[in-house]
Amino acid sequence: MENLGLIFAPLFSYKLLIVLFFGTIFGLILGVLPGLGPTTGGALILPFTMTLDPLSAIVLLTAIYCAGTYGGAITAILINTPGTPAAAATCLDGYPLAQKGEAGRALGMATVSSVIGGIASVVVLIFFAPLLANLAYEFGQPEYFALAIFGLTMLASIGEGSPIKNLIAGAFGILISTVGKDFMTSIDRFTFGINELTEGIGFIPVVVGLFAISEMLTQSTLINQIFNRVALKAVKLPSIDDYKKTWKTIIRSSGIGSFIGVLPAEGGTVASLIGYAEAKRWSKKPEDFGKGSIEGIAGAEAANNAATGGAMVPTLALGIPGSATTAVILTGLIIHGVRPGPDLFREQPEFLYGIFGSMLIANILFFVLGFFGAKIFARITLVPNKLLWPMIFAVSVCGTYSLNQSIIDVWLMLLFGVIGFFMRRYGFSVVPVIIGLILGELVEGTLRQSLVIFDGNWLMFIQRPIALTFFVLSLIALSFPLIKRKKKNDKV
Amino acid sequence: MNDVHKEKGTNKSLSLFLKSSFIVSAVIIVISSILLYFTFTFDIVPPILNRGIQPATFPKALLILIIVLTLITYFISLKNPWKNEKKLPNSFYITLLSFVVFITVSKFLDFFLGIALLSIIVSYFWGERRLTYLIMVSIIFPLIVFVFFETILGLRFPPGIITNLYYG
Which residues in chain A touch residue B153, judged by CB atoms under 8 angstroms apart? Predict the structure, then answer.
């Protein structure tokens, strides 16, 4: 608690304020452009962060995360295409309201609820991350293994799409992490005699491939698609009547978003869908949902932005990413030599509280920029794909090449782009691959180290209370989709 | 009559093999099986030095898990079929082909030239016909990115016919 004062430190650093400003603008642009978003954008910007100090680098990435999550709403409302997956639920009521000539009101509500959700989640982050970090002091290798398994099973059960396909994707991600020299014995695995693969497959080629390149291939199938764009005059602040209708929804969705964010899953996407569904369930006028309900917009937007702070809790406290974008931020931390976990809270509080403060400021910044600049950002959607995607390709190629100056990385990026395209085409989410890749080393490392420490005794995993708790939770997470399906069948 | 039934039965079983769920599951299982085979070629730590599990054990377990889960997915798809995907348009195959062009050109001629060629192919076949825009997207923008990465990040791009001119 004595460190709370450090939250305001970024306000007194002109360098951090500049980074925040550019991060917010960049995040808004990425959020507005369909198919990009904070995850791909963060991955593309990672090489540039090498020119910054660690705090500035992470502040830049978190600003992109916060602003990018909100930016998706602009496109969702104006062209009925979510700029980011997290804004998918916003389309349902945002676009119909815009069609009624109330685009400004819809965007105003999206902006206000996003800011409230975002700020609420940073408060959750500030109070819960240190608590979780303290708990992590009790963790040994078996507990971390059980935690990583829990993370992956949660991803499968509450992530989007089929849980089994999510598990396959997660296992594929972990498998990618096994490529290269085995960390314990230095024995080559899946290197096929290629020297560059002995160091393993980097995170950037996989992320840029799975997100940016696969999206480029998806866009290549949609070149004849025509968007009906609704004109925007100006963003309007919600009226007193709108606030009266939505304040409960905003508070509820902020709570839902923060909670979903903390769980290792697809963060904002799932949070916004649940936030929207709950807003409808509690609404006095559920029949208005899908026809331009202001509560629908508030429910979805407060939840998806609330997931940003929530997702940072396990990322910073345990080193377990809460979403795909936080996996990019986690990579940023690792590249800059910062190891997330309890020690970070004890040894570098100024660094952590600098991040917390920056996230708060980023939320306020995107409120101002979104409110006054939404009209300008909306114009970015006018850049035709036939010009935009070749440019993104150039940045993707150079960005991927730059980290290791390896042409193999560029080829891998293209390969993962093709894999990602077909995965998405056949209903496999690419997010579990990223989380699996990030957690892969932790899963295998902690499993093998545990077996070494406990002399090959597999039973120790269930003899340790914390590890056992995580395994039980994993089983519950795995059976959750089955229970849900049975309930659905019973209803039918 | 019997022949007709036989033909219908043949078509039914043929269509089963052409279903996307079957093709996708088969591809995953074949690739996983090949990789599983490779895990048996990994070096083994001698028992006297071995602590814990062998380096091949973990990837083996993962691959078996993937195969089992894929089989489950396939059997579920027999009850709840996957939605039929639309046929991929030509623009997709051209974009895919441009990747091959990029790889070939960047490997044998020049990295920058590879990016420029891909940009012009994609932009043109996605519908851009204005020469100014084609030049902008295929030469000016990649050049800006190239110089930016080279100066800001101190990146050295792989040698090639155009890159060598830049580096003198």
Answer: 47-48, 50-51, 402
| Structural domain contains residue A235 | no
What domain range is B66 assigned to? 2-79
Which residues, listed in sequence order, are joined to residue A181 by a DSSP beta bridge?
A188
Within an 8 Å CB–CB cutoff, is residue B139 touching chain A?
no
Q: Do B102 and A414 touch (CB under 8 A)?
A: yes
Structure confidence at residue A237 as a pLDDT band (50, 70, 90): confident
pLDDT in tens, B139-161: 999 889 888 888 877 788 888 88
How far from the centroid of its chain's Cα atoms is residue A472's Cα? 26
Please state, in angstroms and rounded to a whole number, the distance separating the CA atoms of residues B128 and A136: 55
Q: Look up the ipTM and state it.
A: 0.89
- CB proximity B75 to A under 8 Å: no
Cβ separation of A184 and B102 shorter than 8 Å?
Answer: no
3-state secondary structure of A188: strand
pLDDT class for B12, splitting at 50, 70, 90? Answer: low
**Closest CA–CA distance from residue A395 to any residue of chain B (Å):** 7
Residue B123 lies in a domain: yes
Residue B70 and residue B95 in one domain: no
Instruction: State whether B63 and B35 are in the same domain.
Output: yes
From the number of C-beta atoms within 10 Å of its C-beta (0-12, 13-18, 19+), residue B80 rates as: exposed
Dist CA A477 CA A129 (whole Å): 22
Chain A CB contacts of B102 below 8 Å: 397, 414
Residues B60 and B94 in one domain: no
- Has residue A130 been placed in a domain? yes
Answer yes or no: do B94 and A164 touch at CB < 8 A. no
Q: How many domains would you assign to chain A? A: 1
Q: pLDDT above 70 covers what percent of chain A?
A: 94
Residues 6+ apart with CB under 8 A from B78: B21
Q: pTM for this one? A: 0.86
Q: How many domains does chain B have?
A: 2
Name the residue among A48, A425, A451 with its Cβ closest to that of B52.
Answer: A451
Say if residue B94 is in the same domain as residue B73. no
